[in-house]
């Protein structure tokens, strides 16, 4: 059990039997009253963000989450298919809502961590930066800098990102999966 002042950012707590991640917490005292912890919580299953105040007498339970490694197989019609890394026959699918926006940067055969709550996968932990091959990049036209010197490229996973004009088809680029932005070009080994 967590006291009101132990409810801090990055903690996972249970509210009404549902897991919430604490995004922001601020303990303050209003005039001569008792301290209050004003928090911003994100529901780990639905993604909905709510605000909640915890008072001195409040206690909450920390959520019991576990992680397991899963291997990404393929995506089809809004479903992402995974299997256990050592057992390809042990397959399961996740809807696009659970895979999140980072799901479009998953390469077939890559291993990621899955967050498990009550025997079901509730979210994926994808690396913050991934290296992907550029599948399609329109040619750069000299003097074409009205969009700030960038162009839209298509990566091997089908995701599209804005990249500098010097990026060509076949280049290896590093992409931030949280923001969906181009980071840098990577030298091929």
TrEMBL record:
Domain Translation elongation factor P/YeiP central stretches: 67-122
Signal peptide (residue range): none
A GO cellular component annotation in the UniProt record: cytosol
UniProt record, GO biological process: peptide biosynthetic process
Coiled-coil boundaries: none
Residue ranges of every copy of the Elongation factor P C-terminal domain listed in the record: 130-185
Protein origin, superkingdom: Bacteria
A Gene Ontology molecular function term of the record: translation elongation factor activity
Family of this protein: Belongs to the elongation factor P family.
Name this protein carries in UniProt: Elongation factor P C-terminal domain-containing protein
């Amino acid at each position: 059990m967590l006291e009101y002042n132990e409810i801090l950012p990055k903690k996972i707590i249970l509210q009404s039997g549902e897991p919430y991640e604490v995004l922001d917490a601020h303990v303050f005292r209003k005039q001569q009253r008792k301290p209050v912890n004003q928090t911003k919580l994100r529901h780990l299953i639905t993604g909905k963000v709510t605000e909640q105040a915890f008072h001195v007498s409040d206690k909450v339970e920390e959520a019991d989450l576990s992680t397991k490694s899963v291997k990404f197989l393929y995506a089809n019609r809004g479903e992402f298919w995974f299997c256990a890394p050592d057992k390809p026959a042990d397959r399961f699918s996740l809807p696009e809502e659970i895979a999140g926006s980072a799901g479009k940067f998953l390469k077939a055969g890559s291993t990621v961590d899955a967050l498990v709550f009550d025997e079901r996968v509730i979210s994926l932990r994808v690396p913050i930066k991934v290296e992907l091959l550029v599948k399609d990049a329109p040619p750069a036209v000299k003097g074409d800098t009205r969009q700030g010197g960038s162009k839209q490229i298509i990566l091997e996973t089908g995701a599209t990102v804005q990249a500098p004009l010097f990026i060509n088809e076949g280049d290896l680029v590093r992409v931030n999966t949280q923001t969906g932005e181009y980071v840098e070009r990577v030298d091929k080994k």
